[in-house]
Specification:
The chain has helices at residues 2-11, 16-20, 22-30, 33-58, and strands at residues 91-95, 99-104, 108-111, 118-126, 133-138, 147-149, 158-166, 170-178, 181-191. By secondary structure, the protein is of the alpha+beta class. α1 runs antiparallel to α4 (33-58). The longest helix has 26 residues, at 33-58.
Length: 194
């Protein structure tokens, strides 16, 4: 933390030892008020971020709050809503007018492990021509990246099934892309007891 603090001071063009010398304190006090305010904000940000790094290292996943994506109910072309009412709906469409998928309505994907793997199907729909790619990473801890299987033979637009293998439980950010168009969501993967 000391090394990080020294780097923060250097951002302000000061050195901790020199800061204590009276001529530097006088120069700081004579500085315009906006400079003093910005310097204080920068120093506070550096201090907080150095603490944040230490806090993150010691915290467990139980303290991490996964900010999941709640489906917007936007169906792909030619499809109607999965549920006519929100009561009892476990999955719902999520899309942006170019790409769509289906997400758990509460953002938590419950997966029953199959041969020790956390595998799930994700349907996608494409309104534009191109090859679908899907990638993902875990947000709350280190983990192997998402592995995705995208079968051929579904054309350049419309429906495209995928198989997704999560390396572990946790908070995952997943992005589907066709050309420059992207659809990103965050889900919490939870291993369901057998």
């Amino acid at each position: 933390m000391q090394e990080y603090t020294v780097r923060c001071w250097s951002v302000l063009h000061l050195r901790p030892r020199k800061m204590l010398q009276s001529n530097h304190v006088r120069a700081l006090l004579k500085a315009p008020r906006p400079f003093l305010f910005l310097s204080a904000v920068a120093l506070l940000a550096c201090t907080i971020s150095s603490c944040w790094g230490n806090c993150q290292a010691s915290s467990s996943m139980a303290h991490y709050s996964c900010r999941v994506t709640i489906p917007n109910g936007s169906p792909p072309p030619g499809k109607s809503a999965i549920c006519s009412t929100r009561v009892g709906c476990h999955y719902e469409y999520f899309g942006n007018g170019k790409l769509w998928t289906v997400l758990p309505s509460n953002g938590k994907l419950l997966i029953t492990p199959q041969q020790g793997s956390l595998w799930s199907k994700f349907p996608w729909w494409r309104a534009l021509q191109g090859t679908l790619t899907v990638e993902g990473r875990r947000l709350d801890a280190s983990a192997e990246p998402l592995q995705v299987s995208i079968p051929e033979g579904y054309g350049k637009t419309g429906f495209q099934p995928t198989g997704v293998l999560f390396s572990s439980e946790g908070c995952w950010k997943v992005t589907g892309s066709v050309g420059e168009s992207k659809l990103t969501f965050v889900i919490e993967v939870v291993q369901e007891a057998r």
